[in-house]
Amino acid sequence: TVQSQIMMGTGERIFEFKLKGRNRKPENMAFEGVLADLELSRKNTTSEGLKARLMAYQTSQTCKNCKGERLNDVSRSVVLEKISLTEFLKMPLTKSKGFLNELEKKVQFRSMSDVINGLKSRVGFLDEVGLGYLNLNRSFSSLSGGESQRVRLATQLGMSLVGVVYILDEPSIGLHTLDNRRLISTLKGLRDRGNSVIVVEHDSEMMLAADHLIEIGPNAGIAGGNIIYEGPPAKAGQSKTSRSGPYLSGNIAVEKEAIALTAEHAEGLIAIKGASENNLKSIDVSFPEGLLSVVCGKSGSGKSTLVNGILAKYAAFKLNRSKVIPGRHKRIDGLEEFHSVIQVNQDPIGRSPRSNPATYIKLFDLLRDLFARCSLAKVRGYKASRFSFNIKGGRCERCKGDGVIQLDMQFLSNVYSDCPSCSGRRYNRETLDILFKGCSISDVLKMSADEALEVFKKQPKIAQKLKTLSDVGLGYLKLGQPATTLSGGEAQRIKLSLELSKKQQGHTLYILDEPTTGLHWADIQKLMDLLFQLRDAGNTIIIIEHDKDVIRLADWIVELGPEGGEQGGELLFQGNVQDFLLGKDTPTQSIFS
Predict the structure, then answer these.
(1) Superfamily of 357-483 according to CATH
(2) Using CA atoms, how far apart are residues 510 and 514, in angstroms rounded to an integer?
């Protein structure tokens, strides 16, 4: 086909090409194809920026020769106790530890004791920081931020260094409380060797385990930046300025202000039968309609597979006409009364710096319409499109509306500087002449949501969208902040903000994956209040979560486990939260007992 020839080339078939330039004559040649040309450009360029842009057009495929195992036939044929290297690398860390322990016991392998002990210690370090459910052949790029941080920490544990300053940014993200306690013990071990450990953290147990606590606040954004407490964690509750102290001391807790509901109040059940994807052991799980349910369990126990991989995908196929294929299960009942499913995950809200909170929640459309209605804009005949930084007309053409100029540093990372024409304001002078309450469209994009709410409080539609950003704990975000700079937790709450700003119809299934990531207790309280408002509007909420407050406040609990990887995937508990908190049998119940 013509499309195939354009993409793959014409082979030996010759075409006449007209070449650029006045005096250049046509030439007869074969066409190599777009893909070959892109690959040649990728290989020859020294620009990391161009390489990154070209990589966006590539996808990875499993090698047909080695079936993704990376080694040739000879290497894969070598076995140790009937286990090849590739089979060993596919084992979860907890299982590989057992295999190494068995090798160590056998007389014929005593000459390899140094190698075996070296492997055991390294695998042990990974298990020590809560990564026992991972396989050794897992691609590093597929790890979450918390997992990759803990892998790097595990490498440091084996070095026995002294006098080093370790800085960790929320290492507890994605960790079950029991795994978090092991991590705390590991960090204390680093300290006891003579190192300094600095941790940015919201987790209460991590904070209370510290020797010294520094709290910055009192609020976020321009209302923060001050040290409001410094000293022992145990004394933070006595401070008049600390925002965390009252929670750490137990004087204040995240509370459930909504009416407590049980399964008896539900109109029906969402029933998943025979869930067997990945490590799930053909389990049957139910979620009551109209309640807020939490799925908990140790890392790698199968929570995401059950909720995101099976239920969310099936619901999207059934309700949203999605073409995604759900994970293995026998059947799912109970979705007949639902209108739609909304999955609020931590995926980026956009992969371009031009995407931002204002564009994602459809606020920017309202702002552009408002500026187009200003008197001077009407006189000049400006339409709403004039205030877009994506199209010609109102934007600065020097930077194409980016506000910055990219400097290609060849072998170094690219450098960005403010555009010399617009001084980083994105728009041309004529567009910036249009003011609302003394602010240009560029000024508004540089405001935080809370600042903008004060300016636009008499514009109902705009104020309502800004308020939802503030309600989900994102009042500090700049409206024009590039989407590429947002954390996964921030991206997730922006998505939730968009859904909250829409008219509620009820009978919607909301699925959230660890929405409390990076949140202070006060923000968790705001978030839970909003989620219960959604529940009381006739919706069903299912949350994957480790946070103890969220688990405690839920209506219905599902716990998977008992461990991660192959030792997980079993249903340990499902029922009303009141019954869950009375039990002591499961890993999560043990932290409440």
Answers:
(1) ABC transporter ATPase  like domain (1.20.1580.10)
(2) 13
